[in-house]
Task: inverse folding
């Protein structure tokens, strides 16, 4: 038991990323052997435009302590405008989440291009540290009544 | 009122419409009326107790109403905004509905209350509403109306809530949503909730659990409000319909404030103005994106 | 054990009847339950895919065959979709048997006609085997079975077996356009084939199951042939949840389909509101 | 059985005794919104509002919760392991519930107990003692007298309290369970007195409610069964949204859904959740076919179930006249009004003419 208690909190973070930019950027970070915290699980989607806020809600429901949404920089979307739509959507969603008490610090939104392996590393490390400091998202995880 | 009844009767007599959807006196105050015979137009009323948003009945999923045939609908300014929303989102064709716009000086909180407007009785939304008459109508009915008593109860509550920490807000909503029984009344009364299949009813996969535990209730309200962002006309029906008294308008109103602040968008009864979610500008603010 | 607690059953066999219809042969995990379990032709159960929910199907095997039950289902939604992913050795839940039964005992000494469409053969099959396993007790046995196409016929091996038997008259049919080049059966809709088969109706029993529209059109044909509406039986497939007469879902008119049915005579059916 | 007197002070003491003995006490109590009360567990008598507004939700949730776990499952190496849920429940006392709410519980015993006995329901039933409080009538939507009940009805209660002289209640002990509660707390109950005051309270309340809807709803079932296709139904629910708020607040609506919810990849729960015949998806088949396709048909089902189907099957109306459905309806559907219309139509068909 003693070892369990002293075990430091390791945040679980789910990253929803677009196939064309961020996923490739994350791949680059990996193949470049950049040091990154291992707390982030990547879910690849065709485009940030495909990322429904429900994905984030589901991640929190299933035990995520933080989430990342990342895609192509403005003007770089493989489908022309998916990231612009996503930008509006998440601009609003994070405020709704904030209103309902989901700390915005648990959510990172970023543009990471296919060449930005270093930026992906930074996004991952910064998010992990930020969520680590916030602690586990027990409020959400204990929402189930029984 | 006389004018309204005359126009309604004429529309029915001429066969221009098959049903006039308006308000009538019910056992518990003003309520929706479906008038199909000219002589029944006498039932129609309009006063400050006509709270309900009748645009809901134009939604194509109301098959039993659609089945009556072409409708005329009595619309306050906020109702007209909802009708514009239905037209904008291709649910209703403009030429398929006759809009009997009424000038409105605000309504009371509940249709059971007396029709006198005071700071206590006025509906929260009317306390900040600046629209006295719709611009989307076929007939405009009634005398110019005075401004309703100005109240900002809701806005103050929102501001107070936003002063708190996220943890405190989470606790607040957990407590509120503990009561939710997932009857989805908030959805069923909403004029802008017209989906043939709601995401909350999807089973493959289950995105939002149907059980009424707070986990599912959070997911439901967050999603509902998200889907209403920039579309909500602030008719207040979701909160009024909630049988367990959850202050849902705090969420919808806060979202509307955010949308206005970010995109300069206010709900309007001009169907040609695009809703802010579903469109974009390449220079939208992105201060929250790393 | 509360009412809603299912028995656990092991899938012994899984057979794909059609591209979207599957039959499971199921055995109770608990030998004591296996020993004591008994049911009657026409009864149904609630089958669970854990994590997805429960679905209602009749028991498709005959009560004369002990030690196992069979069910056949068509993939249509969340639970049937999940059940279809399961295979031999997997565990499913079962609650039952629920509901009333076909009056197999009363059929003794009489002719029996079985009429089914599509997956509707499943509950009828239960009654068919129940009767065939005591073949000497009844008069003529006629089976009329139709499906949209040859590919949609279920229990193909059993159909072959029944076709070969001299003590069974089998009429198989597919809808026009649904036939294969080597199709030797009838082409047409079930009600028409029943009319063509014209089984003897005097004191005869009929069991009908299939899509609502097929039942609706077959009953008048049987009436015309002279069948008594008290001896024509069908089984209703209302949406159900509890199977116990509590949850209210299957209620139509004065009946709870799960308790008063699922088997109804044509006479009882006529008295019900047309909410089918 | 016998009658005693219970002063407000003694009632407060009784609640304190019960709470200190670990019994859960549920009573109408304040919630955050001051206009609203709710039946909820209280931590002291001060929280209870016995004279407060009618709680929008009935106390049926203390017997049939809005969502409850039926079983838990877990994937093991060699199959599935099921974990049962307890059907025994800790003791609770429901205090100050309205007679209409309490009658509903006894009515529901029938459907929960016929043939198959629902242990989850009866587990809570057996663990609960119900102390109801005679009502003075809430508003124009009350119609308990029209369904053969009344603001002082005893049905379903173990003890009925009737306001009497001063701040005392006359306690009518109605069942052995009620008797046991009185005996266990004998020092709190005094010799019966003030019967006159209690009687006039009851009479005034009954008069008040009876004038709302002077019909006999028990006599409608014949007409309802015979007039399934009547014109009335075709236009009845035009304004109905199908939200089911009526069913949620109804003390007798008991339809439920059963769903599975995963709680991880190898485990999950099965729950039963309140459901309503007013929702389109209630009856929709897997094929997409819906036998009750429009709101008019769904509303007819609600009326028939309450006033024809249930009485035929179980011998009593599935309605206690609490009026909550009318109060909760955001669209102004009004059951007492509709019953009045039906009674008028049924007038010819009802031999005793229980309609006005």
Result:
């Amino acid at each position: 038991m003693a070892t369990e208690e002293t075990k430091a909190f390791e945040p679980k973070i789910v990253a929803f990323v677009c196939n064309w930019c961020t996923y490739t950027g994350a791949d680059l970070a990996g193949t470049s052997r950049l040091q990154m915290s291992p707390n982030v699980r990547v879910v690849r989607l065709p485009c940030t435009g495909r990322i429904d806020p429900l994905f984030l809600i589901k991640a929190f429901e299933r035990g995520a302590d933080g989430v990342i949404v990342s895609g192509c920089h403005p003007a770089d979307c493989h489908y022309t405008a998916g990231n612009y739509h996503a930008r509006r959507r998440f601009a609003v969603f994070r405020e709704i989440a904030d209103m309902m008490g989901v700390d915005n610090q648990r959510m990172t939104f970023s543009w990471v291009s296919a060449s930005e392996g270093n930026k992906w590393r930074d996004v991952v490390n910064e998010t992990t540290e930020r969520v680590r400091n916030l602690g586990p998202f027990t409020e959400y995880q204990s929402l189930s009544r029984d | 009122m006389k004018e309204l009844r005359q126009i309604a009767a004429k529309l029915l007599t001429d066969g221009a419409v098959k049903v006039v959807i308006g308000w009538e006196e019910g056992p518990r105050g003003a309520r929706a009326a479906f008038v199909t015979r000219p002589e029944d137009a006498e039932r129609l009323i309009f006063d400050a107790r006509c709270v309900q948003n009748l645009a809901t009945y134009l939604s194509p999923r109301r098959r039993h109403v659609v089945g009556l045939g072409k409708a005329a609908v009595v619309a306050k300014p906020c109702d007209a905004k909802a009708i514009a929303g239905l037209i904008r989102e291709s649910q209703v064709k403009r030429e398929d509905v006759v809009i009997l716009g009424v000038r409105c000086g605000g309504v009371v909180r509940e249709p059971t209350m007396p029709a006198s407007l005071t700071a206590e009785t006025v509906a929260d939304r009317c306390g900040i509403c600046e629209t006295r008459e719709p611009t989307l109508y076929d007939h405009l009915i009634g005398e110019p109306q005075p401004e309703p008593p100005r109240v900002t109860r809701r806005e103050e509550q929102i501001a107070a809530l936003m002063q708190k920490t996220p943890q405190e807000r989470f606790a607040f909503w957990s407590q509120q949503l503990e009561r939710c029984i997932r009857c989805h009344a908030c959805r069923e009364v909403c004029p802008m909730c017209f989906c043939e299949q709601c995401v909350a009813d999807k089973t493959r996969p289950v995105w939002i659990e149907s059980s009424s535990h707070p986990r599912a209730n959070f997911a439901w309200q967050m999603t509902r409000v998200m889907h209403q962002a920039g579309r909500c006309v602030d008719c207040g029906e979701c909160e009024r319909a909630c049988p367990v008294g959850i202050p849902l308008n705090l969420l919808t109103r806060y979202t509307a404030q955010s949308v206005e602040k970010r995109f300069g968008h206010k709900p309007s009864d001009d169907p040609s103005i695009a809703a802010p979610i579903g469109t974009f500008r390449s220079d939208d603010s992105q201060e929250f994106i790393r | 054990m509360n009412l809603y607690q299912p028995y656990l059953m092991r899938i012994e066999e899984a057979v794909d009847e059609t591209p979207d219809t599957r039959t499971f042969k199921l055995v109770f995990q608990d030998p004591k339950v296996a020993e004591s379990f008994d049911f009657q032709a026409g009864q149904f159960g609630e089958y669970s895919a854990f994590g997805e929910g429960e679905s209602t199907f009749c028991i498709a095997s005959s009560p004369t065959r002990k030690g196992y039950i069979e069910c056949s289902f068509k993939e249509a939604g969340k639970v049937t979709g999940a059940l279809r992913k399961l295979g031999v050795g997997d565990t499913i839940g079962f609650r039952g048997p629920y509901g009333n039964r076909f009056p197999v005992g009363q059929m003794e000494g009489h002719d029996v006609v079985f009429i089914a469409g599509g997956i509707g053969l499943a509950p009828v099959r239960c009654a068919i085997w129940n009767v065939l396993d005591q073949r000497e007790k009844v008069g003529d046995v006629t089976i009329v079975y139709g499906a949209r196409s040859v590919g949609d016929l279920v229990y193909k091996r059993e159909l072959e077996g029944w076709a070969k038997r001299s003590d069974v008259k089998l009429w198989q049919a597919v809808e026009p356009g649904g036939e294969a080049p080597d199709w030797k059966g009838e082409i047409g809709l079930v009600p028409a084939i029943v009319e063509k088969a014209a089984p003897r109706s005097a004191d005869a029993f009929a069991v009908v199951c299939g899509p609502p529209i097929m039942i609706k059109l077959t009953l008048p044909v049987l009436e015309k042939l002279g069948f008594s509406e008290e001896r024509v039986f069908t089984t209703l497939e209302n949406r159900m949840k509890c199977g116990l007469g509590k949850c209210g879902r299957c209620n139509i008119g004065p009946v709870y389909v799960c308790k008063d049915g699922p088997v109804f005579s044509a006479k009882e059916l006529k008295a019900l509101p047309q909410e089918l | 059985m016998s009658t005693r007197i219970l002063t407000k002070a003694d009632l407060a003491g009784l609640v304190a005794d019960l709470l200190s003995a670990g019994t859960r006490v549920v009573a109408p109590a304040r919630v955050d919104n001051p206009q609203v009360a709710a039946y909820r567990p209280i931590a002291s008598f001060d929280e209870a509002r016995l004279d407060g507004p009618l709680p929008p939700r009935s106390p049926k949730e203390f017997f049939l919760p809005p969502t409850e776990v039926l079983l838990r499952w877990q994937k093991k190496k060699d199959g599935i392991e099921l974990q049962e849920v307890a059907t025994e429940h800790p003791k609770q006392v429901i205090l100050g519930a309205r007679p209409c709410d309490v009658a509903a519980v006894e009515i529901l015993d029938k459907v929960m107990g016929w043939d198959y006995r629902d242990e989850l329901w009866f587990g809570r039933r057996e663990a609960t003692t119900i102390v109801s409080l005679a009502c003075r009538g809430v508003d124009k939507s009350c119609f308990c007298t029209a369904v053969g009940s009344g603001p002082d009805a005893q049905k379903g209660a173990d003890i009925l309290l009737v306001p009497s002289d001063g701040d005392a209640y006359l306690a009518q002990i109605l069942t052995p369970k009620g008797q046991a509660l009185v005996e266990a707390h004998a020092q709190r109950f005094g010799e019966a007195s003030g019967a006159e005051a209690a009687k006039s309270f009851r009479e005034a309340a009954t008069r008040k409610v009876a004038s709302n809807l002077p019909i006999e709803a028990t006599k409608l079932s014949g007409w309802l069964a015979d007039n399934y296709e009547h014109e009335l139904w075709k236009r009845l629910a035009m304004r109905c949204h199908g939200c089911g708020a009526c069913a949620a607040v109804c003390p007798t609506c008991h339809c439920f859904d059963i769903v599975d919810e995963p709680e991880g990849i190898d485990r999950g729960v099965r729950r039963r959740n309140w459901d309503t015949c007013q929702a389109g998806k209630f009856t929709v088949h897997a094929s997409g076919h819906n036998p009750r396709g429009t709101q008019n048909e769904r509303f007819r089902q609600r009326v028939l179930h309450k006033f024809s189907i249930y009485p035929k099957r179980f011998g009593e109306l599935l309605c206690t006249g609490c009026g909550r459905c009318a109060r909760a309806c955001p669209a102004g559907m009004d059951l007492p009004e509709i019953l009045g219309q039906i009674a008028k139509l049924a007038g010819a068909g009802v031999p005793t003419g229980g309609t006005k």
Q: What stands out?
A: Chain B has nine helices and five strands. The mean pLDDT of chain B is 95. The first strand of chain B starts at residue 19 and ends at 26. The longest helix of chain B spans residues 248-263.
